[in-house]
Known about the structure:
The complex is a heterodimer of chains A (about 290) and B (about 400).
Chain A: H1 8-34, E1 37-38, E2 46-47, H2 51-57, H3 61-91, H4 96-110, H5 113-123, H6 130-137, H7 152-177, H8 181-189, H9 194-205, H10 207-222, H11 226-232, H12 243-253, H13 257-287
Antiparallel strand pairs in A: 1-2
Chain B: E1 2-5, H1 9-25, E2 32-35, H2 39-52, E3 58-62, H3 66-71, H4 95-98, E4 99-100, E5 110-115, E6 117-122, H5 123-129, H6 137-147, E7 149-150, E8 156-157, H7 166-175, H8 192-207, H9 218-230, E9 236-240, H10 244-250, E10 255-258, E11 268-269, E12 271-277, H11 283-296, H12 299-309, H13 316-324, H14 327-330, H15 332-340, E13 344-345, E14 347-348, H16 353-371, H17 375-387
Parallel strand pairs in B: 1-2, 1-3, 4-14, 11-13
Antiparallel strand pairs in B: 3-12, 5-12, 6-9, 6-10, 7-8
Helix pairs in contact in B: 1-12, 7-8, 8-16, 8-17, 12-13, 16-17
Amino acid sequence: MNPRARWHPWAMLGPSLAVLFVFFLLPMGVAAVESVFAWDLLTPPRFVGLDNYRSLMARGELPALLIRTTGYSLMVVAGTMALGLVLAVLLHRPGRFFAFVRASVFSAYVVSWVAVALLWMWMLDGNAGIAGRIVRALGGPPMALLGDRRTALPALAAIGVWKLTGYSMVVFLSGLESIPPLLLEAAALDGAGPFARFRHVTLPLLGPTAAFVATTSLATSFQAFDVVRIITQGGPARATELLVYAIYEEIFMNLRVGRASALTVVFFAMLFAVGLASLCLRRARTVS
Amino acid sequence: MTFWFAYGGRVRTVLLDLVEKFNAAQSQVTVRPVFQGDYFEALAKLRTALVAGVAPALSHVVLEVVPYLARAGVLEPLDDYEGARKLSLVPALAQPGSFAGAEREPLVSIPFNRSTPIAFLNARTFEDVGIAPPTSWDELAATAARLTRRDPTGEVRWGFEVPISWWYWVAMVGQAGGRLVEPSGRVTLGGDAGEKALAFWQRLVHRDRVMRPPPGRDYQAWQSTNESFLQGRIAMMWSSTAFVRYLEDTARFPVLAAPLPGDVRRSVPTGGSAFVLVRSAPDEEKRAAWDFVHWMCETEQTIEWSTRTGYMPVTTAAAAELSSRGWYARHPNDRVAFDQLAVADPWPWSPDLFRWEREVVEPRLEEAVLTGRDVRQTMDEAREDAARPA
């Protein structure tokens, strides 16, 4: 279908473009400008060139932040995908019982992050948390997963996995639905056992679904904020300081608009690169 | 007139009671108290509200940020308000006494909830072990070692706990004979004393293994320390006098308050917050805010506020009245903080003070104590950052 006039598509796109411009591009531009100033909101801004970026690089602060955020994201993406796929395969059966279990798993996804964060904060509390009590009752050592800087980030990632798995399971279930039973039957007739059928039929056909789950959970996990804000505030000793939380802390706690803006610009560049890469990848695949 | 405040728990109840009393006592002004999170969250909101031009006429802010807000020109000078010069404030708690070098600054803050750090002891455990409150760092380490008990199951009763936080570190810097800013104006963050304080914490945690750094940041760590103390998991802690009443009423054991020990000398910072009026607020609201602040400084309210929480009375009249009523004889724990004012060191009146606290020192303390990082390197880095313009 061709437009009757050249401006028609633009008119259709207009409202979304306007929203995109006002709420995404414009603030991004403002952030880029502010990132070369030192400004505390109350006193006049001072031009500092690239100092904000330089100070983020000094002592490896920014690289550490990026590595930590990426590590968290990878743990969450890998965890949700693996667990989501396993659950989807196990629960892809008729019957009320399975429907109930599916709904239960998915329910975590519906709960707000704040509630989830509070819930887990209490369960994992070093003193009174039920997790620690169970371990102690079984004769294990006292533990404070969230208070130890080696375990705090994996613990947060595990909470993220718990929360997001329901979503990835549902998407995988719909992916399983779309696999024609004929193919599986044919494979069975050819003598393929359940594992071989899964490995050679189901898994390859779930490829696009998996790509979708990976992209969405990557985006979600990169924006992790609520859990950090509520459970650890970036501690202990910055072990759980993730990018978005660092931006929040710079601007609202330290009132460093410039540094926060510089971080935002870096964050944007990163997401842009990831988005571009996945787009190119998809194009390349479609062409081939 | 809207009033932003930053307390939870018991202190909040007491404040709301007082506000209600004020609203009922007169008909000209209605104070609408609005809770804004802890000190730091409330401050963040206040600063953004100031930029947006929607800040309320009255707030209270953590002491260390007053010089910064004063320099930014957002606080209302109070010298000319009616009765401002006749408040009979306790000298060490009034603005000129709380800050060194503030004598010539305009009056922009009125002390509200004021505290010093004090030690809280589980009196039952101390009695069982047969030991007296420590008066020096060495005694503190030895006492903590005697109080620490490890069960075969892995359960530990810790001898000592303190939030790894700027306020307590500053106390120890003073005790070790240091100061944040030298009289020459050079920012040393305590110099050797700053490192010594940090190294002492590291020793208690890693070498002596008699102290556990509490989990959580900022006031979460304070709260968790209080909880562990109340559960009997720690025998001795440093906390704020703000919690005297709460701890006494909640604990299932007798609670004993004691002054902080000294090292080469005795020293504590003062803490808590001060009332501030926002300069850009309408005159009428500022006058209303002042009426409330002035009313809060009257003897009756000061006494109610102090006795129901543990904060110090901010006027000499209220303090004298409490003494003559025999309050301190009946509640010796309430006296500890007030008596410590004799060794209280004022804060430097520096617009950078708050930045040193939040950005330069506080995050490094936690890192150094948890990871055992070299204290010299840590503090060198901190001094470098402190000297850099904001």
